[in-house]
Amino acid sequence: MRLQEHPNLIGLFGVLEIPDRGLALVLELADGGALRQVLNDRVKFPVLPWGVRMRWLLQTAQGLGVLHGLIPRAVIHRDLKAANILLGTPLGAAAAAPAAEGGEQGQEAFLQHFLEHSVAKVADFGIAEVMETMATRASANGGGSSGVAGTLAVRAVSSPHEI
Fold first, then answer.
1. 20 to 30 A from 66, CA-CA: which of 72, 99, 106, 141?
2. How far is CA 6 from CA 20, 72, 94, in A?
3. Which residues of 105-137 are buried (b: 16+ CB within 10 A; e: fewer)?
4. Multiple choice CATH, 29-144, 3.30.360.10, 1.10.510.10, 3.30.70.20, 1.10.10.10
5. What is the pLDDT along the chain (163 residues), one digit of tens a residue?
6. Angle at alpha carbon of residue 23, lines to 18 and 24, rounded to 5°
């Protein structure tokens, strides 16, 4: 599986060079916007069901789990916040969404469909850090055990202020 195909990571389709502007990333469309917008919009989303919140939390954790589990080099996001989690809908669900027209009832049906089908996607890797995992270091040092059980450690603490 390629990284951009994971359902909880925003897809990267390519890089464009724009004259006099530099490079631009071509990313997957997340039609629901940022999680921060949804959490702060009390007009559109006066009540955000806990089941939806927990689903988005689990999806975000699954995306991070993929990044942290990359061997031989894990990716540490370093700027995870609601503004960097985008909400999208799968293509089939987006096509089946009721029109937002039709007054208040149509808008309510559209928002309910969005809440039921939206998917959280980790995005904005601007300050992400690629780290060598301890498993890679152990194999480079003759295959000895690093003494780490369970989840692999991916970043050593470099100062007591980071604890």
1. 141
2. 33, 18, 18
3. eeeeebeebbbebbbbbbbbbeeeeebebbbbe
4. 1.10.510.10
5. 455 578 998 888 888 898 998 888 888 888 889 999 999 998 888 889 999 999 999 999 999 888 888 767 778 887 889 999 999 987 656 556 666 556 677 778 888 888 899 999 998 876 667 777 655 444 444 444 443 333 333 343 344 444 4
6. 90
Question: What tokens appear for 122 in the block?
Answer: 């980790």
Active-site residues, by number, are 79
For tokens 């689990």, the residue is 58
